[in-house]
Structure prediction request, 365 residues.
Amino acid sequence: MSCANNSSNVNETFIIEPFVAEDIYTTSATLIGKTIYFDRIDILSAYTADLSSFSTTDIYVTGGTYSNGIATFKNNSGGTFSVTGFSTSTATAFTGGTVTGATIFTGGLTANTISATTYQNVAHSGTTGLQGGIVGEYYHLTASQQSRVLNLIYSGQVTTFSIAPTTAERGTATTVTASYRMIAGDDIYTGATINPLGYNLYPDFTDGTPRTTGFTQAASASTTTYTLNYGYTRNGVGNAAAATATFTTYLPQWCGVNVAFSAVTNYAAVSALGLTKIVSSSASQSMTPIANNQYIWFISNKSNATITQGGLPTAISSLNVEDGVSDFYLKSFTLTLANGITTGALYTYISRQSKTLTGVLYTIA
Prediction:
């Protein structure tokens, strides 16, 4: 070794192995029962996760309520939770809209105007209408007031019935016309018959149209009352009513002049005298005859009549007595009427002397 040179040459060889960098990661997972198995790139089921402690029940909201800005919800497990923060200011209150279908406002409903087809269970205070939502319910009226109001506006039935003529000569058949009209109004007719004819008018002839029907009044009848009997309901209550018309026949009476002096007893003989016939209930008659040597005649239904001549009273004999002094002789007789069957009691007043005169007024009463 030389001290003049301190360096040395060292020849050494190093072997460097290559670096290996390998990532280990999960490649898949499988759920079997309540356990998850995870596979790595280097090994299957490298690790697991046990899920048995986790619940699999679905929890969901089943309902809720709202009060004073707090919404409380209930779930299917029986638990509840609340949500707060809702504004209770009237500035955000419901201001209008349309409700369709049955709706209940549990907290009440206030509005300036409410429009509905039917109102039920409405408080009467402050309302101005008459009838409520329930039939027969009236606001602000007592039972007595309700009745009086309904009577003012109720239109009841109006039934009219008449006959023409109403009088005729006894012993002659007469054609009579019955006129009737039945207006139901707010009532309901339940029947209608004209008696004693037995004509049924219900239901065809109770529609308010004026109608007539004809019939023949018997010759022998003196007085007949015809009645339109009818029934109707008013506010559910049945009623019966009647409208009547009376037909009356009278014995014929006569007045005039004739040359005959003897009384007669049959209709044909009286008619042949040429006297004026009067059909009336009254015995009062008057005439101003033109007589030429003829007798003054009155045939009356009155047995105690008085006669005036020119405004002055005349003397009348006793019944069936020709006393030779009285102005008129009074006689009674039974007259067979025009039908040849019916009879009636009449009285003749015949002047005792024949007269020739004109312009003289005679009256009998």
The helical segments are 143-153, 267-272. Residues 158-249 form a domain with the Immunoglobulin-like fold (CATH 2.60.40). The longest helix spans residues 143-153.
